[in-house]
């Protein structure tokens, strides 16, 4: 990735950005001002929809492939399925998209800070379009070949989908005050909920097709290929928007500023410490969330073992993310009230307790199927309504805008490492120790995630006060991001605890001065009375 900082690469990019027609800078500005987006928040919203649709589509597609003409196949005879799954696919299939997304978050996040968010969004969503279509079309052959091709295309899909995480957050929060940037990022994030529901709704519609030989092939290919539609919409929206830097005269200045800010921030130890916190809380949260979300059909099969058809499992699997949508609708207003760090910690602790309650019911009352399903719905409600929002917004609050896509990408990539671990851990622990052990692991992951967010993340609160160079006192949330990041002591803005410490030092010094003055007055009074007072030294002396 270091080639993105090389002078020849930056020079080549700037040269490629020059209009060959010889138009002046003012003319370029006029041309680009005519090209305004009709709905600025739409690309970020659709990008978030694309993320979860393509993550969840594999679960629905796998249900189709492991059935026989839409009838569930017995665990004792898995090779009677229309697309029998080799043993090695069990853990690799659903993890491949997360492995790709790790690379996508890191690379595309850096690309967004270097080349601009618009160009990076076009690149990452173009990759999603190609790989989603190929997942539905270019998959054939005997089982090992077919599933191998599917894993390969899912890996490339993950690279594209992973890039959407930091780029959509950076785009949504790129303009306005800090309060507005957080609200925009939260509203864009909401659409991950409908994105996670959509594959299951599509699956329910496809199950209405008449049963015949080959129906499952059509069904899984349609679910996979439909992931290209929202990504293609993002590419279209981005082509309708102007470049991130609206004029050739400003391009070189903005680009050099971005690269300088990126270089300085990479060596900032305080930002690295915060990165450990945002990455750690996201990683352990995703271990719990994706270990539950991706394997929701498997969990439901265990809860309603022997009592549910394929269509019933698909419908109940769709109910779970719907509960998550309601959770998100509750969590977004709470984000403004209590802040992302408190929302994150509180939600994770509640979710951990729900996991443990589920284990208790599953062990002592396994026949209470509806109760177990309700607890699972509450788990999705809490996870989507609190830590899922907070882990997405914390990097927006914690890092300067010039390097936000890079650090958001790194935090998100750690999250997808957690998602990958969750998808690896789930089948291994399930086969070895059962569903109870899986949920205990999820509870522990939630507790660790909460600890990372509490002790390592120092995101500023929107109501923290700060003094501008002009002497005006205002809250961080009310400040424009350009004004905020123009302050010379940026760490004091992003880490208000440091400001509190400095204020405390100044207050102590003022108290010392006041006591010295009072003591001098007392000495004067005592001297008039003919009484000698004790000698006390201040400042660097031994008296105070």
Walk me through what this model shows.
The protein contains 21 helices and two strands. It is mostly helical and 544 residues long. A two-stranded antiparallel sheet has the order 1-2. The longest helix has 55 residues, at 310-364.
Write the layout of secondary structure elements.
Layout: H1 7-17, H2 25-33, H3 42-65, H4 89-115, H5 117-137, H6 143-172, H7 178-190, H8 192-206, H9 215-225, H10 228-240, H11 248-266, H12 269-293, H13 296-303, H14 310-364, H15 369-385, H16 387-398, H17 404-433, H18 435-455, E1 465-467, E2 473-475, H19 481-485, H20 490-494, H21 496-528
Antiparallel strand pairs: 1-2
Helix pairs in contact: 3-6, 3-7, 3-8, 3-9, 3-10, 4-5, 4-6, 4-17, 5-6, 5-9, 5-10, 6-7, 6-17, 7-14, 7-16, 8-14, 12-16, 12-17, 12-18, 13-14, 14-15, 14-16, 14-18, 16-17, 17-18
Task: Give structural attributes.
single chain; mainly alpha; two-stranded antiparallel sheet; 1% strand; disordered N terminus; disordered C terminus
Helices and strands, in order, run as HHHHHHHHHHHHHHHHHHEEHHH
State the end-to-end distance. Answer: 55 Å
Query: Number of DSSP helices?
Result: 21
Number of strands: 2
Overall morphology: globular
**Helix content, binned percent:** over 70%
* Rg, nearest Å: 28 Å
Query: What low-confidence regions span 5 or more consecutive residues with pLDDT below 50?
Result: 1-5, 7-35, 246-259, 488-499, 538-544
Proportion of strand residues: under 5%
Cross-sheet strand order for the largest sheet: 1-2
The biggest beta sheet is recorded as: 2 strands, antiparallel
Structural class, judged by helices and strands? mainly alpha
The overall pLDDT, averaged over residues, is 77
């Amino acid at each position: 990735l270091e080639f993105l900082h090389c002078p020849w690469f930056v020079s080549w990019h700037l040269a490629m950005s020059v209009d060959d027609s010889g138009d002046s800078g003012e003319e370029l500005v006029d041309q680009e001002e005519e090209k305004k987006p009709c709905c600025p928040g739409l690309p970020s919203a659709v990008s978030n929809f694309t993320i979860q649709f393509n993550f969840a589509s594999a679960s629905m597609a796998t249900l189709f492939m492991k059935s026989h003409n839409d009838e569930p196949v017995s665990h004792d005879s898995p090779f009677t399925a229309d697309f029998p799954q080799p043993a090695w696919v069990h853990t690799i299939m659903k993890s491949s998209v997360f492995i790709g997304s790790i690379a996508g978050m890191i690379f595309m996040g850096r690309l967004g800070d270097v080349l601009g968010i618009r160009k990076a969004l076009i690149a990452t969503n173009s990759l999603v379009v190609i790989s989603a279509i190929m997942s539905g079309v270019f998959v054939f052959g005997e089982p090992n070949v077919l599933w191998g091709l599917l894993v390969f295309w899912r890996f490339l899909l993950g690279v594209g989908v992973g890039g959407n995480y930091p780029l959509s957050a950076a785009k949504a929060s790129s303009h306005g005050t800090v309060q507005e940037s957080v609200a925009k990022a939260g509203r864009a994030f909401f659409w991950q909920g409908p994105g996670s529901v959509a594959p299951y709704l599509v699956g329910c519609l496809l199950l209405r097709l008449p049963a015949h030989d080959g129906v499952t092939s059509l069904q899984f290919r349609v679910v996979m290929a439909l992931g290209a539609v929202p990504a293609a919409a993002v590419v279209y929206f981005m082509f309708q928007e102007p470049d991130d830097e609206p004029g050739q005269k400003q391009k070189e200045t903005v680009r050099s500023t971005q690269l300088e800010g990126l270089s300085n921030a990479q060596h900032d130890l305080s930002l690295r410490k915060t990165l450990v916190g945002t990455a750690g809380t996201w990683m352990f949260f995703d271990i719990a969330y994706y270990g539950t979300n991706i394997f929701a059909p498997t969990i439901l099969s265990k809860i309603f073992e022997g009592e549910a058809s394929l269509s019933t499992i698909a419908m109940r699997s769709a109910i779970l993310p719907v509960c998550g949508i309601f959770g998100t609708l509750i969590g977004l207003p709470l984000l403004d009230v209590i802040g992302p760090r408190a929302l994150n910690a509180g939600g994770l602790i509640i979710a951990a307790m729900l996991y443990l309650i589920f284990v208790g019911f599953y062990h002592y009352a396994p026949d209470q199927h509806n109760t177990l399903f309700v607890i699972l719905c509450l788990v999705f409600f809490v996870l989507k309504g609190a830590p899922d929002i907070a882990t997405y917004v914390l990097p927006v609050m914690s890092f300067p805008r010039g390097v936000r896509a890079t650090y958001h990408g790194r935090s998100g990539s750690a999250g997808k490492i957690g998602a990958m671990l969750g998808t690896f851990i789930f089948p291994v622990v399930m086969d070895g120790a059962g569903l109870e052990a899986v949920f205990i692991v999820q509870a522990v992951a939630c507790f660790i995630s909460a600890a990372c967010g509490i002790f390592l993340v120092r995101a500023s609160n929107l109501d923290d006060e700060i003094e501008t160079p002009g002497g005006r006192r205002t809250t961080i949330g009310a400040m424009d991001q350009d004004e905020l990041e123009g302050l010379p002591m940026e760490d004091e803005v992003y880490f208000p605890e440091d400001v509190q410490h400095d204020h405390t030092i100044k207050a102590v010094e003022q108290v010392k001065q006041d006591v010295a003055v009072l003591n001098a007055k007392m000495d004067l009074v005592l001297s008039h009375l003919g009484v000698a007072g004790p000698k006390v030294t201040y400042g660097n002396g031994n008296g105070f």
